[in-house]
Structures are given as structure tokens and as C-alpha cells.
Design a protein that fits this description.
Layout: E1 2-6, H1 8-16, H2 20-29, E2 33-38, H3 39-46, E3 53-54, E4 57-58, H4 59-71, E5 75-76, H5 80-95, H6 102-117, E6 122-124, H7 134-147, E7 153-155, H8 157-164, H9 169-172
Parallel strand pairs: 1-2, 1-6, 2-5, 6-7
Antiparallel strand pairs: 3-4
Length: 173
């Protein structure tokens, strides 16, 4: 069984996808994987402004409900170790030539640290400007190899939908 974490942006993609109901049902019925969440992701979703509406729905309420429906009781604690790993990712990222400010990228690093420390197999994200930028991914591998942690695989929303559509996770990698 594969263990996944969805980055914050994936919930937005699911929420506005015309196949939303099919995707959510596929996630809930799929016995090949479990989707986990954590306080960091939920807090980012809670930061969605209350006044934004999409197709008559309050986006914040809709996405938080979607998150709760998908995650259910599969919530990973965020510990001091994850903050320490994220700091180390950031130091390595900067040494590898990364240019983003710490404030703009540290939450993504904490999410990856939580995934790595909890032996999560896959992180799904479409965040190619911070979480998945080459220097960041190299930093994850470097720090995790020193800490003897496994770096999760990263997939985008398109690949996630492919998995949900019937491809076995092993066929995707």
C-alpha cells in the first residue's frame, strides 16, 4: 500500500475539476493507497480568504470540507524534528543556489520533512516554483541521505489523476 500527502494546491485542483466527484470517490475507495494530511496543510487551506467564491460556493469552506473528507483520520503530527529537517533543507537549498526567501518556501520544506520522516511514498504537488524546484529536490535528497530518511517520490496533479484512473502506482514510477 502506498502512502501519499497532497500539497495544498492539489486540493484546489480537485475542487475545481469537472471530475471532482469521480476523483474523490476513487481516492476514498482505492485500497492501493492512503492519503495523509497534517496541520501545516490544513492551516494553509484555512488561510484561503473567506470571501472568495467559485461557482456559487465559498472556496475556503469547500476546500476545507474536501480536505476533511479525503484525509478522514489520517493525520500526521508535525514535530520538532520536521522543523529541524526543514531548516536543513533550506540551508542545503541555499548552498545549492536556491533563491527563494525562507518565508516563501519553509512551509513546503516542512511538508516534505513530515513526509520523509513518516516514510510517505508520494507527495503530490504542482508547485514547480518552490517545493519541486530542482535545487529544493536536490536539498531533500542530500539532507535525507545524511539523516537516513527516504525522500518521497513527487508527482503532479496529472499523474495523480492517472493513478486514480486505474494505473497502478508502480506503473507510474
Amino acid at each position: 500500500m502506498k502512502r501519499l500527502i497532497f500539497d495544498t494546491n492539489i486540493y484546489g485542483f480537485i475542487a475545481k475539476d469537472i471530475e471532482r466527484e469521480l476523483i474523490v470517490n476513487s481516492i476514498l475507495a482505492n485500497r492501493q493507497f492512503i492519503v495523509y494530511g497534517n496541520k501545516l496543510i490544513r492551516d494553509e487551506l484555512r488561510d484561503i480568504p473567506k470571501k472568495i467564491r467559485y461557482e456559487g460556493k465559498n472556496v475556503r469552506v469547500d476546500i476545507l470540507s474536501l480536505y476533511d473528507e479525503i484525509i478522514r483520520e489520517h493525520i500526521l503530527a508535525v514535530a520538532d524534528l520536521h522543523y529541524e529537517m526543514a531548516e536543513n533543507y533550506y540551508k542545503a537549498y541555499k548552498e545549492l543556489g536556491g533563491s527563494k526567501s525562507k518565508d516563501s518556501i519553509i512551509t513546503d520544506f516542512k511538508i516534505v520533512a513530515c513526509a520523509s520522516a513518516n516514510n510517505i511514498d508520494i507527495v503530490s504537488s504542482d508547485d514547480g516554483k518552490s517545493m519541486l524546484v530542482e535545487n529544493a529536490v536536490r536539498a531533500y535528497h542530500l539532507v535525507n541521505s545524511i539523516a537516513k530518511k527516504r525522500t518521497p517520490n513527487f508527482i503532479d496533479y496529472y499523474m495523480l489523476k492517472k493513478i486514480l484512473g486505474g494505473a497502478k502506482p508502480d506503473e507510474v514510477f
